[in-house]
């Protein structure tokens, strides 16, 4: 047993909430991780936002991953609810429910040579063994019902497209930018976020086109120069204009020209 390391919830992580308590005692969770083929180390005490957690290292050659068991309650539950939109204190009830955090360090999520497939495989395994109710993909602060994101990952691992709607958020602007849609979380894959005016097509159709671009960028890399590509409909064109952004991610302005 080592001393308690203090850390906040890492952005490179996924939260699995609403896990039955009987699956998460030390021996049971260690055995489950071994059955998943994850070769866990001995559990150590760490602290997330001041709450003690138990953490298992499940290192891979390419990146280091850890699984932490935590019991959010009281002040921490309120902090989590404030930090992660869509999560309320009721999501931690009944009290026998627990949360597991899958975190990764030194991972490159950019495809095709990154660690995304390894991370998603591990996340799907944890979901299959631990039966969570909800999963949050923290890079996008995006919550999904656990069965939905798990099915999307399993289909992707079987050859289907990446389930981008579970990994990248699409936000409507506010104030003068209320007609714009901006992606949230694409930057961890490409170093860029997309922004588009939704006035002409409306939010749903604009997001439909942005989702296609998100998938293309995750698979093929960032937009390096101005470009014009075919849209979803005949004679529709999409103009991509990269420009410097903020918060470490550049922006790509998307102009959609309907047929």
What fraction strand? 25-35%
The pLDDT mean sits at 82
Major sheet strand order: 1-3-4-5-6-2-7-8
Shape: elongated
Q: How many independent structural domains?
A: 2
H/I helix tally? 6
Poorly predicted sequence stretches spanning 5 or more consecutive residues: 1-8, 84-96
- Overall radius of gyration: 20 Å
Share of helix, binned? 25-40%
Could you state the order of secondary-structure elements as H and E?
A: EEHEEEHEHEEHEEHEHEEE
Please give the largest β-sheet.
8 strands, mixed
In terms of structural class, how would the helical and strand content be classed? alpha+beta
The CA-CA distance between the termini, in Å, is: 65 Å
**Total count of strands:** 14
Question: What does this protein look like?
Answer:
- This protein has 259 residues and is α+β, with helices and mostly antiparallel strands.
- It has helices at residues 26-35, 74-83, 116-130, 146-157, 187-190, 203-220, and strands at 5-7, 13-20, 44-48, 51-57, 64-70, 97-105, 134-137, 142-145, 169-172, 180-184, 192-197, 227-230, 237-246, 249-257.
- It is elongated.
- The protein has 2 domains: 5-157, no CATH class; 168-257, no CATH class.
- The longest helix has 18 residues, at 203-220.
- The chain is built from 6 helices and 14 strands.
- An 8-stranded mixed beta sheet has the order 1-3-4-5-6-2-7-8. A 6-stranded mixed beta sheet has the order 9-10-11-14-13-12.
- The chain starts with a strand and ends with a strand.
- This is DUF4261 domain-containing protein.
């Amino acid at each position: 047993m080592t001393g308690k390391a203090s850390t906040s919830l890492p952005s490179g992580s996924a939260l699995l909430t609403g896990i039955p308590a009987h699956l998460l005692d030390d021996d049971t969770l260690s055995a489950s991780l071994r059955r998943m083929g994850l070769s866990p180390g001995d559990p150590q005490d760490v602290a997330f936002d001041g709450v003690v957690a138990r953490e298992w290292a499940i290192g891979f050659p390419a990146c280091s991953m850890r699984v932490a068991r935590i019991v959010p309650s009281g002040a921490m539950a309120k902090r989590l609810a404030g930090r992660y939109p869509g999560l309320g204190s009721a999501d931690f009830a009944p009290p026998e429910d627990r949360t597991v955090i899958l975190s990764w360090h030194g991972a490159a999520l950019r495809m095709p040579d990154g660690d995304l497939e390894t991370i998603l495989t591990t996340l799907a395994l944890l979901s299959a063994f631990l039966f969570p109710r909800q999963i949050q993909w923290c890079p996008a602060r995006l919550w999904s019902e656990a069965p939905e994101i798990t099915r999307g990952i399993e289909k992707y691992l079987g050859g289907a497209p990446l389930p981008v709607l579970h990994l990248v958020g699409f936000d409507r602007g506010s104030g003068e930018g209320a007609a714009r849609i901006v992606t949230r979380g694409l930057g961890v894959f490409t170093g860029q976020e997309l922004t588009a005016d939704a006035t002409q097509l409306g939010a749903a159709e604009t997001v439909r086109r942005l989702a296609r671009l998100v998938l293309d960028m995750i698979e093929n890399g960032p937009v390096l120069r101005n470009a014009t590509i075919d849209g979803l409909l005949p004679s529709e064109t999409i103009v991509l204009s990269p420009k410097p952004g903020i918060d470490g991610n550049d922006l790509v302005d998307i102009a959609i020209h309907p047929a």
